[in-house]
Amino acid sequence: MTTPTVQHAVDAAFRDEWGRVVATLIRRTGDWDLAEECTQEAFTEALRRWPVDGIPQRPGAWLTTVAGNRAIDRLRRGARGAELLKQAGREAPPSGTDEGTMPELFDETDEIEDDRLRLIFTCCHPALPLEGRVALTLRSLAGLTTAEIARAFLVPEATMAKRLTRTKAKIAAARIPYRVPPAHLLPERTAGVLAVLYLMFNEGYSASSGTELIRASLCDEAIGLARALQQLMPDEPETTGALALMLLHHSRRDARLSAGGELVTLEEQERVRWDAAEIQDGLALLESVLGRRQLGPYQLQAAIVACHARAASAAATDWREISGLYALLEGQLPSPVVRLNRAVAVAMAGEIDAGLAILDELDGDERLARYYLLQATRADLLRRRGDQAAAAAAYERALPLAPSEVERRYLLRRLQEVGSGERVHFGQGRSS
Fold first, then answer.
1. Rounded-to-integer distance, Cα 312 and Cα 306, Å
2. Start-end ranges of CATH 1.25.40.10 in the chain?
3. Residues 121-160: b if buried by 16+ CB within 10 A, e if exposed
4. Measured on CA atoms in the order 309, 310, 315, 319, is the torsion positive or negative?
5. pTM of whole model > 0.70?
6. pLDDT tens for residues 296-316?
């Protein structure tokens, strides 16, 4: 029987180790589906064994060994796998082996000995469609479900499942190598890699489903990979900008939830709880690249978040500066979500009607049809304008669309406040 302690340990190991285990197995077997399946089996085995044997001191090593042994067993049972093992001069480990080191099927050396980076660059090969690259890496490296990735892309789950299948098939058919590319090929692969890392970070920053709003370990994973990528490509401004953006956002993590687990918006957060060291790190990174005058979307987004980080209070925030930065961002990255955020900035700069007019333009965009922040933002701006009844109606439309319990509880509280006539000053959804 699985105890709460063991369940917590397995859940933590899944968050922390899934990507590492899958990435290592892909390198060793060359089979993406086999790697994911055996990794999942290893976690199932952990639920069975850890209550009896105890939680291992190094859960990641235990899981990699168990998953690897299962992969080798499966390979030995197939003609292709047996040939692969023969070529590598390896034998499968004894039956029942759970500890020790899994045999290496390949001896590879890259400049960066990090299977997670190897996996990202393979997923982000330019022969693959951009959204397929991002989706596959989120699935293989971060362990996100197809449903979670579909929500991140604002597409149906069935559509995302087909996209993942096609992307894996393309990797096999095109014989895309599993490696970090040589230096001269790195620039052309940057955009896809950064998209992977930032979507991974966003899923951790505001989870697309479940009872928890923040998955800090996923944010940490994205930041760690972004830092490694920035060290690999120090002369690429956008890699530095992306790392700065993540650090500045993540610096607010401790202030984004109350002691009772309720959402605290940016406007209401205790700024003394923001991580000063991360803010300084993020600001320094941003300053180091802005002077190059090679502005890209990640640098612009980091500059927006920096405006909040530098403000001593919510009231001191320079919303006109933020509005101007969003206008520049929309020119480089035209998307309905960017335009939605620009509407907030315009309204907060004192032009609420202009902000609502932008939201009216977005009403017909099918990509936002089930995006709860469109209605939540409208509700907040209407409340600020004093239209309590219209604000309540917008909150009611947003409630069933909210992806997490934390966000649903937040919307319900605000709905109750406008319904009771309370005039509480608060900010909109994910600006937390």
1. 12
2. 318-432
3. bbbbbeebeebbbbbbbbbbbbbbebebbbbbbeeeeeeb
4. negative
5. yes
6. 999 999 999 999 999 999 999
